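Wait, mind explaining this?

_____
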Amino acid sequence: MVSSPHEAHHRIFQENPGLFASAFRTLGIPFPEPVAVSLMDTDLTEIRPLERHVDTLLRIDLVDGGSLLLAIEAQGRKDPDKRSSWAYYLAHLYAKFRYPCVLLVVCRDKGTAEWASEPIRIGLDKHPSLVALPLVLGPHNVPMVTDAATVADDIPMAVFSAITHSNDHDIAAILEALAEALRATDADAAAVFAEFTEAGLGATPAREIWRNLMGTGLSHFRGFVAESFRDEGRVEGRVEGRVEGRGEDILRILAVRGVAVPEEARQRIAGCKDLAVLDVWFERAITATTVDAVLAES
């Protein structure tokens, strides 16, 4: 389960790695033609007990045979400590992998985006030894998509736009266009995108707008968002249904993502009655490339 706006804002790049291409087009930055995108370990720890984790890390293999790393950070507020962490991430990644490194920061408010865009200069004022120039996506440069046909052309980007503009006064029009496009989308894929949207909107009035849309216009598919919209106070009577539905959701997500599920693994998922375990498996299913990675012991 995508559990927070922070997680949804960067993990949508894990679920849909091609989203970065749309994002860079939004910034007006030419980007080399990729041939493959790989999700990488986000642990950048070098000397314990100091641990550093980038939110999402992608290796992008280019058509010319080269590769680069894309480090994606979701930033919800100004945090002076983060700027030194970002400089560390870039230097460490380059030292470890010897690939060109790009830092992309995604924000949900203009003030944080403007702060994150400032160059990070290390060294002398007139001759810094290291300069980091983050690329930033926020409400100031991510387009608001209010046309369902446009949304349908690039649903991951539309979901990212909705999350980014969650506090905008036009968010209702954005969400209505997204909901209309999802009605014409495969139900399993729509459920995944709906949950990313639900989590990404966070504790905002926009979340209630989206939940109302989930409870009406998108009632043709069954997912955690639609389930949780129904009278959240009546937990006891819903536990059994949620357990069963959670297993089905995991199997649907794996099927949509093309992950092979042998019969033994299918029975294990369908037969699990522990909702906490199912929630862990659900979260892993969004990015895992094998069913073994989903079911691995923690």
The chain has a mean pLDDT of 81. DSSP finds 14 helices and seven strands in the chain. The chain has two domains: 5-137, 187-295. The domain at 5-137 is CATH 3.40.1350 (Trna Endonuclease; Chain: A, domain 1).
